[in-house]
Amino acid sequence: MEYLVKEEEIFLDILSRLRLVDIDQIYFHESVEPRRLQRTCQAIEKEGVIRHPVIATALSPDRYLILDGAHRTHSLQNLGCNKIPIQLVDASEIKVEAWEHLVPEGIWLDQLRDNTIFQWTNTIRSEFHVAEMIYTDQTIFWGYPNPDVGESCNRLKAWHYLVELYTRNQSVIRLPQGRFSFPESNHVLLRFPTLTLEEIKEIVLAEQLVPAGVTRCIVQGRLLNLNIPLFLLNSTNKTNEWVQFCEQKVDKLRLYTESIYLCEV
């Protein structure tokens, strides 16, 4: 009985971090991929629910930074929702890593080689690089902003150019860091430097964004499968319904400590 009481207290604490916030209180740190956004928006509209709350941390008492869920948040906005369900997490609970991108070879590689925005070298320099590009034959190149292009060619601008170049027409597979040493045939593997949470906040406060799908924010204790109805998110007078919805979820929460594989949209 004591165990069950403690478990319920844990669930109540987790649900207390579930917030319904105005869309204008939301800040993004990354761009979105148009094709991924379209698929996500269509899936949410078809189901009539958002399955999982987005992960956010506080920028200030009334401003929230989306760490995971940019495509879902933009989808809700496109569907006319003015409220966003967030799971609020503290900075101490967040581990920031970088996704690696496995990308098929194609014309984009020729376009990249012809563009003067980058300098590619087979030796790593002391300054921060934009990306590390690994080929099937085990050759590795590091890309740096070309100083000859001028001050307008900064690291963030070059980073956006690179990611947008191949996500525009290629199917990109996101991989956790260290999954592959070298890519499979006819592919290249791109690795990116890992940003700290403070660096991400600095970029956001400077009204900038990082490219889509390069940051990976790992949080323990995520709330999944809440299936939040869209009708709760498209009105300003749904407070009572929202409270009732959260209360109904307490008895349905289950904590799984083993590893799982989740198939995303």
Automatic annotation (TrEMBL):
Domain ParB-like N-terminal: residue ranges: 19-102
Domain of life: Bacteria
Gene Ontology molecular function: any one: kinase activity
Transmembrane segments: none
Stored Gene3D superfamilies: Conserved hypothetical protein from pyrococcus furiosus pfu- 392566-001, domain 2, Conserved hypothetical protein from pyrococcus furiosus pfu- 392566-001, ParB domain
Keywords per UniProt: ATP-binding, Kinase, Nucleotide-binding, Transferase
A UniProt-annotated Pfam family: ParB_N
Protein name, as recorded: ParB-like N-terminal domain-containing protein
The organism of origin for this protein: Bacillus cereus
